[in-house]
Known about the structure:
Layout: H1 4-20, H2 25-52, E1 54-58, E2 64-68
Helix pairs in contact: 1-2
Amino acid sequence: MPSFEESLKKLETIVDQLEKGDLALENSLKLFEEGVNLSAACKQELEAAEGKVQLLVKQRDGSLKPEPFLTEKPF
């Protein structure tokens, strides 16, 4: 299984090829399908990494409690 970085680099290459617009329809569809699969794999890996990120919050009693890392600020 390729690393996240390898998958992302391949996805960028696919996007570049598709943006040129000089491929046959069949080749474009194959590349598009591969790109969708790579995108889904990258998203899944990012979500797994995000789940591992935690902040330690100091409690009133001085102990530390792990809390999920929020990417958006709550209102």
